[in-house]
Design goal:
Rossmann fold; six-stranded parallel beta sheet
């Protein structure tokens, strides 16, 4: 299968580029300067040139705090851009897999969110991502919208790599303990995307394979719990490890409000596609092993 992916360097895009060929897929990454979500008119030309079987809409404006001061740019990229891409895929008769986020919820629910729960984003980033979901759904009925959370990888900028970097200089780190979520290893998310892609061939609008799904690591933890696990595994590898000092969200103010509850119920993904993401600690362990391998060369 030939899969066109919007984005060139993101964590999930990189994981797709690595995992896709191993699973027999050709992955074509489309990103800047050839393609920009802020002005996505080039998508039709790309579809004409590459003739993919499916498109994964992965490129996004992900600077959550910066989005508060750049709402127009965030909306152009996250809100309007995906709709243009989805409309183009519909013209070419192609299904689209669009990546979204837990930030479409307000985080006040006490249990994990299911796909049918009311949305209520409280920041610019979440509002623009929700607008993107709606634009994709309206433009192409053969869509899969995947909401995920707390994504990290062995490359790029993410919480895991930041914790490891800070541990080299700081014996103690203050980390928020009253926000809960499901850490998701980008490699595992990429595998799920490819599995879904392989099962969409011939699918018609309206069948259960299309719609909104949640896809995140199994199990949940807090940011402080996540950091503690990172340092436990790091210490076992002989890396520097900091002691985690749990703090409240109020003690670490940010421009954008983070959901207190980012946990996603992924039962629908398992029911429809038979996909169950690995436990977040297992993904983290494999991520740190991969990091160690990279450092050894």
């Amino acid at each position: 299968m030939r899969i066109l992916v919007t984005g060139r360097e993101g964590q999930v895009v990189s994981a797709l580029a690595e995992q896709g060929p191993q699973d027999g897929h050709e992955i074509i990454r489309l990103g800047r300067p050839d393609f920009d979500l802020a002005s996505p008119d080039g998508i039709r030309a790309a579809l004409e040139a590459y003739r993919p079987n499916l498109v994964v809409s992965a490129a996004a404006y992900t600077a959550v705090d910066q989005a508060e001061s750049e709402p127009d740019l965030a909306m152009a990229i996250n809100g309007r851009g995906p709709g243009v891409i989805a409309a183009a895929t519909a013209e070419f008769g192609l299904p689209i897999i669009h990546l979204s986020t837990d930030y479409v919820f307000d985080g006040r629910k006490l249990t994990p969110y299911v796909e049918t729960d009311p949305t209520g984003p409280e920041g610019v980033y979440g509002r623009t991502k929700l607008a993107g979901e709606r634009a994709v759904a309206e433009a192409n009925p053969r869509h899969v919208i995947l909401r995920t959370s707390w994504v990290y990888a062995h490359g790029g900028k993410n919480f895991v790599r930041t914790m490891l970097r800070l541990a080299a200089d700081r014996p103690e780190l203050r980390v928020v303990s009253d926000q809960l979520g499901c850490p998701t290893y980008a490699t595992d998310l990429a595998s799920a995307i490819l599995d879904i892609a392989g099962k969409l061939s011939g699918g018609k609008a309206g069948d259960e394979r299309f719609g909104v799904f949640h896809a995140s690591g199994t199990g949940d933890t807090s940011w402080a719990g996540f950091a503690t696990a990172i340092f436990e595994l790091a210490a076992a590898q002989g890396r520097a490890a900091s002691r985690v000092l749990p703090i409240a969200t109020a003690d670490y103010p940010t421009p954008a409000r983070r959901p207190a509850n980012s946990r996603l119920d992924c039962s629908k993904l398992h029911k429809v596609y038979g996909i169950r993401q690995p436990h977040w600690f297992d993904g983290l362990s494999r991520c740190l092993t991969r990091l160690a391998q990279q450092e050894r060369g």
